[in-house]
Structures are given as structure tokens and as C-alpha cells.
Write a structure and sequence with these properties.
The chain has about 400 residues and is mainly α. Helices cover about 65% and strands about 0% of the residues. It is found in: Membrane.
Length: about 400
């Protein structure tokens, strides 16, 4: 494959080397070391769970395409390790300029891993349509913008630090949709944009990983960890049961569809992420899990057939109805539950509700605007745009010795 757009030897390795050198030099001057209060040792298992979740879970979760498995898992690992270093650097800069409190290095890494979830979700929307060079640029831009969005929420809208971090699903989904709208749609006859039983099975394995570790994700930085774990588990359990029920009801022959189960079993974890540590009654979490699964499956029907075609949006992994819509539902539920909890504080309730709604709207607006800008930048010729006919193809990035000729 000697085409210029496929030859990354003169771009990707040098960009990786440059960025890694920047991270190493920056860590020498800005590394905070063990000073400050670290996360308690008890939190390390949860930290490791989230690490497994983003690497194993999302790595397999994105293996939905028949010819893009190497890139889905390999590129996922690369951008995670790059993104975590970038996030820690941004966190250290914010602490250096006294814009963020120093919670210790382990907490910075924990926030970095959670923040990377936004990039991974966005990657699902553009999967197979952008090359590694474009993916690295998108990762760096999205992380910086996400931290800016979080800083606005915390500084001006007085949103709790943990709550602002949970906007990660909302931001990642709509940033990815805005980016993918800037790329041409693949041809409907392109069979590479389809799954196989093997890719569906591996993707479902990723969903199972994510399902198992999602309570740790929601509770890692929460103050009330037990509440967060229990509420997340109940929400996930109900969303999984609802997914099987609705899948059978909405399919013509009454059989389960793997695409439904693959997406909807996680809806409860996304929906409950905003309120996991504040809900006192498990039945509320269970209702949110049920509603999250309903909006995911029904949304997949409506969006794919009604909304995506006129808007020219091709969402490769269905991140809108897997993460975007449940996140919107969760954000609205957080506002409703906040109003119920603070109903007696009528003097400032309107103002506080306005701040919470403002944070929700600000996150979506910033994600959409910066996503469109980023998508436009990624389309410049310097970043080696992939022709539509070459979408969703592993062979252009990885060696396949068994396909070599001339032996």
C-alpha cells in the first residue's frame, strides 16, 4: 500500500515522539509527586476496575466492524495512554495556576482515565472513518476542550467536581456526532460497514466488561461510595432486563437482537451516573435504569431511520442512543431530583435550578461547536484524509502476513 494517504511513516511516529517528549519534559517541571492527599488505599481496586473498563471494556466494545478489529483495540489503547498523560498534564497546569485543588497524583490519574471516556465515546462515532493521525489530534483537542467545559461548570455555574466529571458521556457523544457530521457518509453498499457474528460476540464481551465495572466508574471519586455502587448496580440490572424484554418486543420475529443488548444493557449506568451518590431509595435508580434502556432501544429505531439520514450523520457505533440520549435523560433526572430534594429552600431554588440546567446546556453546546470545528480541521489535506472507499479497513494500518503475495 504505497498511496500517500496510507504512508504514515513520516508523520505518526514523529508526532508520537514529539508528544511523548513534551509529556516527559512537562512532568519534570510540573509533576506534583506524592504531596497532597492521595486517594485512600481502599480506592485502588476501584481505580484498577476503571482502568480495566476503559482498556478492555471499550477496546472490545468498539469491535463492531467486520474488518476493523485490530484498529479498534489497538488505536483505543494508544489514545488512552496518550490521553491519560495529556489529562494529567492539564490537571497539573490547572493546579499550578491555582485553578484546581491538589487532590494528589492518584486522583489526577483517576480523573484523567474518566475524562478519556469522552474521547473513547467520540471515537465510536467516527470509527473507521479517520486515520490514526487524525485520531491523535482529535484526542488532544477534545481533552483540552472538555477540561475547559468542566472548568466553566465548576467556576461559573458552581457545579460539584464529581458531577462535572460525569458530564463525560454527554460531552463525548455530542462531540463525536459533530465531528462525524463533517465526514462523508459511506456507501450503503459498503459491506465493510457491517458486523459479523464474531465481531458482535467480541463487542458483546466488551459490553459485559463495561457492565461489570461500571459501579466502580460511578463511585471512584464519589463521596458516598456505597450508595453509588448499589444504585449503579440496580440501575444496570434493570436496564439489562428491560433490554432483553424490549428487544424481543420490537423485533419482527420476537427474537433478541444483539445490537439492542449490546447498547441498552449499559444505559442504566450512563443514566444513573449523575445521581448515583445522592439517591437514597434504590427504586428510583431502578426506574432510571428502565427509562434509560427504553430510550436507548426506541431511540435507535427513531434516530437511525428518521433523524440520521436527513442530517447526513453516520454514527458508526451508535454512540448517540448508547451514551448521548441516556446521558440527557440522566442530566434531566438530576435536575428533577435536585428540585425535589431542595423544595423547601424556595428562596434560591430557581437560581440553583438555572445553574444546573445551564451546566447541562453549556456542555452540549461546547461539545457541538468545538466538535464541528475539530471535524473541519481534521478534513485538511495535511492530515491525510481517507477516501470513502477505504473506510473501515484494517489492512491499511496493520500487517497481515498471511495476505502477502510473492512468496
Amino acid at each position: 500500500m504505497s498511496s500517500n494517504y496510507l504512508n504514515f511513516r513520516n508523520s505518526v511516529p514523529w508526532l508520537i515522539l514529539l508528544l511523548e517528549a513534551l509529556f516527559i519534559i512537562s512532568s519534570y517541571f510540573l509533576f506534583l509527586g506524592p504531596d497532597g492527599q492521595l486517594l485512600p488505599y481502599d480506592s485502588y481496586p476501584e481505580f484498577q476496575d476503571v482502568n480495566h473498563m476503559v482498556i478492555f471494556g471499550f477496546g472490545f466494545f468498539l469491535m463492531v466492524l467486520r474488518r476493523y478489529g485490530f484498529s479498534s483495540t489497538g488505536f483505543n489503547l494508544l489514545i488512552i495512554v496518550f490521553g491519560v498523560q495529556c489529562s494529567v498534564l492539564i490537571e497539573d497546569l490547572l493546579i499550578f495556576f491555582h485553578l484546581e485543588e491538589n487532590g494528589g497524583f492518584l486522583e489526577s490519574v483517576a480523573k484523567a482515565i474518566i475524562s478519556m471516556t469522552a474521547v473513547i465515546i467520540s471515537t465510536g462515532a467516527v470509527l473507521g472513518k479517520i486515520n490514526l493521525l487524525q485520531l491523535i489530534v482529535m484526542t488532544l483537542v477534545e481533552l483540552i476542550v472538555f477540561y475547559v467545559s468542566r472548568w466553566i461548570n465548576k467556576t461559573f455555574l458552581k457545579v460539584d467536581d464529581h458531577l462535572s466529571l460525569m458530564h463525560v458521556h454527554l460531552f463525548g457523544a455530542y462531540f463525536g456526532l459533530a465531528v462525524t457530521s463533517c465526514f462523508p457518509e459511506p456507501s450503503p453498499r459498503l459491506d465493510k460497514n457491517e458486523s459479523t457474528p464474531k465481531s458482535d460476540l467480541l463487542s458483546m464481551l466488551g459490553s459485559v466488561f463495561l457492565w461489570v465495572f461500571w459501579p466502580s466508574f460511578n463511585s471512584l471519586l464519589a463521596q458516598s461510595k456505597i450508595k453509588a455502587v448499589l444504585n449503579t448496580y440496580f440501575a444496570l440490572a434493570v436496564s439489562a432486563v428491560t433490554a432483553f424484554m424490549l428487544s424481543a418486543l420490537t423485533s419482527k420475529d420476537g427474537k433478541f437482537r444483539m445490537t439492542h443488548i449490546h447498547s441498552a444493557v449499559l444505559a442504566g449506568g450512563v443514566t444513573i451516573s449523575y445521581t448515583a451518590q445522592s439517591i437514597s431509595h434504590p427504586w428510583i435508580a431502578m426506574i432510571l435504569g428502565l427509562l434509560g434502556s427504553v430510550i436507548t432501544i426506541l431511540g435507535s429505531h427513531c434516530l437511525q431511520s428518521c433523524l440520521n439520514p436527513p442530517l447526513k450523520i453516520h454514527d458508526t457505533s451508535g454512540v448517540h442512543f448508547t451514551f448521548g440520549l441516556p446521558a440527557v435523560l440522566g442530566a434531566l433526572a438530576q435536575v428533577v431530583l435536585f428540585v425535589i430534594r431542595e423544595w423547601t429552600n424556595s428562596s434560591s431554588l430557581d437560581y440553583l435550578v438555572l445553574l444546573h440546567v445551564g451546566a447541562f446546556c453549556q456542555t452540549i453546546s461546547v461539545a457541538l461547536i468545538t466538535g464541528f470545528i475539530t471535524g473541519s480541521v481534521l478534513n485538511i489535506r495535511l492530515l491525510k484524509i481517507i477516501p470513502v472507499s477505504k473506510y473501515f479497513e484494517d489492512q491499511f494500518y496493520w500487517e497481515f502476513p498471511h495476505l502477502a503475495v510473492g512468496f
